[in-house]
């Protein structure tokens, strides 16, 4: 809250004043009694009336003036307000002639309505506001010397603990919502971290750098080889030209030498070839015999009865087809095994994720249960506070049951009693003055009478006709003393009545404050109970969701186990097919060996016959 402007007319020592308070710190200085405190009291009076300054309406009006006007402009919560109070002191008792509060929501009129609206707006009554904004002389220790309950009430009003509790509850609800969002984001972030870890494990950057380095090296070598190839082409062209010329001459010489050598070597080669062929015939026969034995031994390991080339080829074709079938089946089973294995890993990962989510929901439900329990304890404490407030309200309402006025008329009755008390005190003062004068006159008359003089004219007593008037004076003094005693008794009675009336006004104000406090506490209790119901529903939902996630996780684990069993079955089939394929390959190798031995035996037989023919032939 910030005061913006205050205008005074006939308020205490101010005839006409208009003070604007700009933003920042405003310092008002002056001598004692110059009216510094009156400016602040004018603001308090404008907001709450005479209750805020402990003075009556007559005392705020400048002496000799009939009207007093206070206007206050202030801002609170970003909204501006204008408040006007006018006091009229033309009759026996000063009265509030005008009290208007102008707000954006509307206009409030009347001292009681304005004070109630200001209290609701600032959430402070007159005492709390004054204690918060201003420390009077002699009241510095008011908070320190207050009783524990009074000090607690003052601190609660000043610190707005009720609103703080509301904000704390809202912050707790917001914290739960943020926690849920945070958990979801953490789950997504964890998945991203796993993907990043997989990419980093592949070391793609290092591989890319290595490949780029290799590419640079290969490009350099290619350029080097290209240069060398061009040089080699030039050298080759030169060498080819030289070789062609040299070859032509050598061909001519070689033709002549060949003719001579061929004639010289023909006979020698023929004899040598004949000897070699005889030896070769012997070797081929030995080889053929060895091949025949090897063929018989190899053929015994096969299913064939003889080394028939067609039968061997047909059997090889059959085994090759079987090998291809086994290879295809192995590939299919391997793919199927990888599929089931990948499916099992995916299901297991999903089951782990579901289990994690279920655990998270159970943890959240446990946390909510703890908060609900704490909220129930808080509600119980507030209900106890409501009971205490109800007891205080009932106690204060009991005071009005035996009183002559109700709570609405307490303030007016207090003002009436105060007016009567002022009149009674004025009557006592008048009687005391009159009695004092009469006593002085009587004392003078008695002194004259004692001196033998007339109390009225001062003549000798014997000659004065007014000597007996002193008795009348004594009777008048006695009557005045009796009247004064009665007036003082009346003042005492009225003071007692005023004390009772002020107690009733205070009780009425306390009742209004207690009713407001009760309404606030009841509202907080209702909101807290609604929050507990929502939390209970949320707890049930979380536990149901956790159970459902756990069930889904169990189903995923079972499916993963089945997928692993299927993958294992596929691997078993692959092992069986590999074993059978090894058998097929062994059979193929044996048949190929039979086929090779047959070809080599036929070749040896043909070479033997050729050698025999060559050995028997004569050179020409």
Kindly report how far apart the N and C termini lie.
142 Å
The unreliable regions are none
The neighbouring-strand order within the major sheet is: 2-1-3-4-5-6
Average pLDDT reading:
81
Overall domain count: 3
Structural class: alpha+beta
CA-based gyration radius: 63 Å
- Determine the number of helices (DSSP H or I, runs of at least 4 residues): 11
Number of strands: 6
Instruction: Note the run of SSEs as H and E.
Output: EEHHEEEEHHHHHHHHH
Describe the structure.
With 620 residues, the protein is of the alpha+beta class. It has 3 domains: 2-123, Rossmann fold; 204-300, no CATH class; 378-602. Helix content is 76%, strand content 8%. It has helices at residues 36-48, 57-60, 111-122, 126-133, 142-145, 148-159, 161-201, 204-300, 309-401, 410-450, 469-616, and strands at residues 2-11, 14-20, 67-76, 79-88, 95-103, 106-109. A 6-stranded antiparallel β-sheet has the order 2-1-3-4-5-6.
Please outline what is shown here:
It is built from eleven helices and six strands. The chain is α+β, with helices and mostly antiparallel strands and 620 residues long.
List the helices and strands and how they pair.
Blueprint: E1 2-11, E2 14-20, H1 36-48, H2 57-60, E3 67-76, E4 79-88, E5 95-103, E6 106-109, H3 111-122, H4 126-133, H5 142-145, H6 148-159, H7 161-201, H8 204-300, H9 309-401, H10 410-450, H11 469-616
Antiparallel strand pairs: 1-2, 1-3, 3-4, 4-5, 5-6
Helix pairs in contact: 8-11, 9-11, 10-11
Output the keywords.
620 residues, alpha+beta, Rossmann fold, 3 domains, 6-stranded antiparallel sheet
């Amino acid at each position: 809250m910030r005061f913006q402007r205050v205008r005074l007319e006939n308020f205490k020592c101010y005839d006409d004043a208009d003070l604007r308070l700009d933003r920042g710190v405003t310092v008002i200085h002056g001598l004692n009694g110059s009216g510094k405190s009156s400016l602040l009291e004018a603001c308090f009076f404008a907001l709450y009336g005479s209750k805020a300054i402990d003075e009556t309406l007559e005392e705020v009006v400048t002496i000799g003036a009939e009207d007093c006007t206070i206007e206050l402009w202030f801002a609170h919560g970003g909204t501006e307000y204008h408040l006007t109070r006018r006091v009229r002191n033309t009759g026996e008792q000063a009265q509030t002639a005008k009290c208007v509060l102008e707000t954006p929501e509307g206009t409030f009129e009347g001292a009681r309505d304005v004070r109630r609206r200001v209290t609701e707006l600032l959430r402070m009554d007159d005492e709390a506001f004054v204690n918060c904004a201003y420390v009077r002389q002699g009241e510095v220790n008011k908070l320190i010397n207050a009783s524990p309950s009074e000090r607690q009430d003052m601190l609660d009003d000043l610190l707005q603990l009720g609103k703080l509790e509301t904000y704390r509850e809202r912050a707790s609800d917001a914290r739960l919502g943020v926690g849920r969002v945070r958990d979801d984001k953490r789950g997504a972030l964890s998945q991203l971290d796993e993907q990043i870890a997989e990419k980093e494990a592949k070391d793609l950057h290092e591989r890319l750098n290595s490949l780029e380095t290799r590419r640079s090296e290969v490009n350099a070598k290619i350029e080097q080889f290209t240069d060398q190839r061009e040089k080699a082409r030039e050298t080759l062209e030169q060498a080819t030209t030289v070789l062609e010329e040299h070859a032509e001459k050598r061909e001519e010489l070689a033709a002549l030498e060949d003719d001579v050598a061929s004639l010289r070597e023909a006979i020698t080669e023929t004899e040598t070839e004949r000897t070699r062929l005889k030896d070769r015939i012997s070797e081929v026969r030995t080889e053929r015999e060895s091949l025949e034995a090897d063929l018989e031994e190899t053929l015994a390991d096969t299913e064939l009865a003889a080394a028939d080339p067609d039968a061997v080829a047909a059997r090889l074709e059959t085994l090759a087809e079987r090998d291809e079938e086994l290879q295809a089946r192995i590939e299919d089973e391997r793919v199927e095994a990888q599929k089931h294995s990948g499916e099992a890993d995916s299901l297991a990962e999903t089951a782990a994720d579901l289990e994690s989510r279920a655990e998270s929901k159970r943890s959240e439900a446990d946390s909510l249960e703890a908060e609900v329990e704490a909220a129930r304890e808080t509600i119980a404490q507030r209900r106890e506070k409501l009971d205490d407030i109800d007891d205080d309200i009932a106690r204060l309402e009991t005071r009005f049951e035996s009183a002559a006025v109700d709570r609405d008329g307490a303030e007016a009755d207090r003002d009436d009693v105060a007016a009567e008390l002022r009149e009674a005190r004025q009557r006592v003062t008048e009687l005391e003055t009159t009695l004092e004068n009469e006593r002085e006159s009587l004392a003078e008359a008695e002194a004259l009478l004692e001196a033998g003089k007339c109390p009225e004219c001062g003549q000798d007593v014997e000659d004065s006709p007014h000597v007996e008037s002193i008795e009348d004076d004594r009777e008048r003094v006695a009557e005045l003393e009796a009247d004064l005693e009665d007036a003082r008794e009346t003042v005492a009675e009225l003071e007692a009545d005023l004390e009772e009336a002020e107690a009733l006004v205070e009780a009425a104000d306390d009742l209004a404050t207690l009713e407001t406090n009760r309404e606030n506490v009841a509202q907080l209790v209702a909101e807290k109970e609604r929050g507990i119901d929502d939390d209970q529903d949320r707890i049930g939902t979380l536990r149901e969701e956790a159970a459902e996630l756990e069930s889904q996780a169990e189903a995923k684990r079972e499916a993963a186990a089945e997928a692993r069993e299927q993958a294992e079955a596929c691997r078993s089939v692959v092992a069986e097919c590999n074993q059978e394929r090894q058998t097929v390959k062994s059979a193929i190798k044996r048949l190929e060996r039979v086929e090779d031995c047959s070809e080599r035996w036929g070749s040896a037989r043909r070479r033997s016959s050729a050698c025999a023919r060559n050995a028997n032939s004569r050179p020409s």
